Amino acid sequence: MEGKEQSCLAQLCWLVGLIGFMTAWQLFEVEEMFTRVLTKKELKERYDYIIVGAGTSGAVLASRLAEDEDKDILLIEAGGDPIHDHNVNVPAFADIVRGTEFDWNYRTVPQRFACKGHVDNVSVWPSGRGLGGSSNINYMQYTRGNRHDYDGWVNGGAQGWGYKDVLPYFIKSEDQRNSEFILTVFHGFGGRLTVSDVASSTVNKIIELVFKEIGLKKRDLNGHNQFGWSPTQATIRNGVRWSTYRAFLRRSREAPNLHILTHAVAQKVIFEGRQATGVVIKHEGEEKLVRANKEIILSAGTMGTTKLLLLSGVGPRKHLQDVKIPVVADLPVGENLQDHVIGDGVDFFTPYPGVSYTVARSENFASSWSYSLFGTGMKTSPCFRESIANIRLRHQPPHIKYPLLALHIVSNPESYYANQLNINDEVWDAIHSNPPSREGFTIYPVLLHPKSRGTIRLKSSDPEEDILIDPKYLAEDVDVKILAEGYQFARRLVNAKVMKEWEFRLTNRRLPQCERFGNFTEQYIHCHLRHITLPGHSPVGTCRMGASGDPSAVVDPLLRVRGVKNLRVADASVIPSAMSGNAYATQVMIAEKAADLIREKDSVKPIKDYFKHLLAVKHKKFVEDDDGQTVMTPATETGN
User: Fold this and answer.
1) What are the C-alpha distances in Å from 1 to residues 6, 7, 8, 14?
2) Helix count and strand count (H, E) for the chain
3) Beta bridge partners of 635
4) Count of CB atoms within 10 A of residue 131's CB?
5) Average of pLDDT values for 501-513?
6) Type and span of the H or E element at 168
């Protein structure tokens, strides 16, 4: 009997030890203790390739170029290594990381047509800083956009970037965890970037019934057709944010031919004539010049790459002359700035408990242990972005095959606070203070294809100065009209049967600044959206890709900066126009394709050959599907 008791005690101790180890592995991130601090290498005078920016695109590009062991690569990054930061790793804590050392904390210039309720009419623009860049602070949503987006690139002169050209690169990098999606031709598995479904939530169960009632189909938003809705797919693996640093760069960080230099700011590209030969960096308080034998590739993001090119004398002649920078190439760098626009959210409140996800709730005992032991629970939510819907406009022109309007569903009716968004307290409080319940969710309308075009400019020739970001939000009336349609669509959902069963209601509060336009009239909603205007976090277009002779293009289809030699750009700034989804997945694709262009390889040939076979036999997987649904929302507009 005594032996049996000792055996049971031993088993119990073993179980307790196992649970303790699993808890420590997640809670105290034991795994990261085995990830060494970056080896400090001596900076050399020359490298074959210099990559500026280790962000979303740069991390991917450096990892791929390092596969050629005979090539020497320097990767320059202004920020540090986020691998040991707990908040970066937890998906639910994305908003906590913003505003920290891992965020550039950009701000726009005062907006004339939007942000009227913001402090100084200024919008806050988070942008990642550190290894992995914005993939460390974004909401991890994996949306590629629409195939017509990429075919539009080709029509604009970017040959080789059509949907059939880029899809293999999406597939190459993807490690899709949805077993149904893997069976289609649109997804890959075993790649480096893990993509998974968000865990089932009460909000998504309710939303599914709401959309079913109005006839909006559940779809793979990265498949045949983007009109419909889907639970969020996010770059999360085993409950941890799977940034491009984790997915790509971390496995290459100790490669002998890759030198990762952190806390180093690129200040200028050096030209000899029109040939880019080196980069001036500021590191540890000193300016240093590093030379490139082959090429310099800028992957510093839309803001960073634009700033560096302008400081280097590549940009609009008049602007460069105004800030007293010698002109190397007269190109429209900094023009064509576009960003999605997010309207103020429509908050839905219910008296029933257990609906909302919040950071505080994710920190309770049960949720924390679930995350620590199994990598599950509220902390795995991509900052509570539970689902996405793309809807057709009531009068969408038939020739426009891609969505112009999206809805983002967030499982928290208090997902933002005024100071996060730089909004005046009295404006924010008029709508969002003292909620009738802590339970519910919010729907944000998102303008995907703004007509408004903005700019990025330098204040001066001083690299330490902030840049002047002017997205010109809602400068075109059509933009606010489309956004208002999304806002009205969301409000009408309160009349759906399941919403009434859960006793959801709106507050119907109105901004005092807009009350003169009536009770949620079209004019009132326009005024409301011009006062509370949120950034879409997908700025693109300032180094637009186009045909070699196109005067509106900055880079050609090989991503080479026009008019100079040995200089390329590989990040979101080359995207010609705003996407039908955020730019995150597209930036990974651009880096994958850029690596092939630079290495003069075709790493996706097996995927292309498979597609050719399917097309040859007219396989049903490639049947065109432009099923543009007509969706009817519940007829009554609350508040009218």
Assistant:
1) 9, 10, 11, 20
2) 21, 25
3) none
4) 30
5) 97
6) helix 163-173
251 C-beta neighbours (distance < 10 Å), count: 12
What's 345's DSSP letter? P
Mean pLDDT over 239-264 rounds to 96
Q: What is the enclosing helix (H) or strand (E) of 152?
A: helix 147-155
Q: How many residues does the chain have?
A: 640
Sign, CA dihedral 553-557-558-563, equals: negative
Task: Tell me the torsion sign for CA atoms 39, 43, 46, 51.
Answer: positive
The radius of gyration computed from the CA coordinates of the chain, to the nearest angstrom, equals: 25
C-alpha 452/C-alpha 82 separation (Å) is 35
Strands (E), 123-235: 124-125, 174-176, 193-197, 228-231, 233-234
The candidate with the shortest Cα–Cα distance to 156, out of 464, 429, 424, 553, is: 553
- The Cα 79–Cα 135 span in angstroms is 13
Give me the chain's average pLDDT, please.
Answer: 91
Query: CA 58, CA 63: separation in Å to the nearest integer?
Result: 8
Task: Tell me whether strands 385-391 and 286-298 are parallel, antiparallel or unpaired.
Answer: unpaired
Q: Say what the pLDDT of residue 624 is.
A: 46
What is the pLDDT, as a whole number, of residue 634? 52
- Span 17-70, pLDDT tens digits: 555 555 454 444 445 544 555 667 899 999 999 999 999 999 999 999 999 999
> Are 266 and 58 in contact, with CB atoms under 8 Å apart?
no
pLDDT of 100 strictly over 70: yes
> What's the token pair of residue 478?
């059509």
Quickly list DSSP for 402-441: S-SEEEEEES-TT---HHHHTB-HHHHHHHHSS-S-S-EE
Q: Which residues contact 145 (CB under 8 A, 6 or more apart)?
A: 226, 402, 579, 580, 581, 585, 586
End-to-end, the C-alpha distance of the chain in Å comes to 78
List beta partners, residue 467: 458
Q: Which of 274, 268, 314 is nearest to 288 (CA)?
A: 268
Q: What is the tens place of the pLDDT at every residue in 322-339?
A: 999 999 999 999 999 999
Q: Can you tell me the distance from the alpha carbon of 177 to that of 193, in angstroms, rounded to the nearest whole number? A: 10
> Which amino acid, one-letter code, is at 612?
K
Structure tokens at 619: 């396989």
User: What was the pLDDT predicted at 631?
Assistant: 43
Per-residue confidence (pLDDT) for residue 639, from 0 to 100: 41
Under 8 Å between Cβ of 546 and 556:
yes
Q: Are 604 and 596 in contact (CB under 8 A)?
A: yes
DSSP per-residue string spanning 88-135: HH-GGGHHHHTTSTTB--EEBPPPSSS-TTBGGG--EE--B-STTGGG
Amino acid at 25: W
What residues contact residue 275 under an 8 Å CB cut-off, 6+ apart?
564, 565, 566
* Dihedral angle over CA of 306, 312, 314, 315, nearest 10: 60
CA distance 179 to 160: 30
Closest alpha carbon to 326 in 313, 335, 339: 313
Pair of tokens at residue 141: 């949503």
Element (H, E) at 49: strand 46-52
Q: Residue 595 corresponds to which tokens in the numbers above?
A: 């690596």
Provide the token pair at 403.
Answer: 């969505």
CB 428 within 8 A of CB 532: yes
Cα-based distances in Å from 190 to 87, 187, 267, 364: 27, 10, 38, 34
